[in-house]
Amino acid sequence: MQRRALITAGAVLTASAVAGAARASEKAAPAAAVLNLPGMGLPVITDGRVRNYVFIVLKLHLGAGHTVEAVRAKEAHLRDALIRAGHRTPFVLPDTWVALDTTALSASLIRSATTLIGRGAVTRVEVVSQSPRRRTGMQGV
Q1: CA distance 95 to 4
Q2: pLDDT tens string 42-80
């Protein structure tokens, strides 16, 4: 008799725990959408010369109300705008040719996304990786 009561109590506790977890997940805010932009090469230009190329992988964090599909439709335009900006005003760091200025790059891409997609489309740009074509390149070297 005791065994049946324990089994029944265990089943009731398990069911209530599952129901509680389901209610908690319904109340939790949905995760922000993220779009990955695979590798693209940006130039490192100093003194009017291309010194190196750095290949980057980006993760775009999308704002509320913007879907991955809608932003993915504009992915080619975002890439083009970023590469044009990289040639116009390079994202160079003053002491190296093997890395890019991620702050300037992020700001440029957010401005372009605002123009191309709409205000608040991209809230944050995360540079996942930077791989230089040539591994050396200090200004003095």
Answers
A1: 74
A2: 999 888 889 899 999 999 999 988 888 989 999 999 999
- Within 10 Å of residue 74's Cβ, how many Cβ atoms? 17
SS (H, E, C) the chain: CHHHHHHHHHHHHHHHHHHHHHHHHHHCCCCCCEEEEEEEEEEEEECCEEEEEEEEEEEEEECCCCCHHHHHCCHHHHHHHHHHHHHHCCCEECCEEEEECHHHHHHHHHHHHHHHCCCCCEEEEEEEEEEECCCCCCCCC
pLDDT band at 141 (very low <50, low <70, confident <90, very high): very low
Entry pTM:
0.70
Place of tokens 């890439």: 79
Confidence of residue 30 (pLDDT cuts 50, 70, 90): low
Question: To which residue do tokens 């980057």 refer?
Answer: 56
What pLDDT does 101 receive?
A: 92
Integer Cα distance of 23 and 101 in angstroms? 44
Which residue, 52, 69, 60, is CA-closest to 125?
60
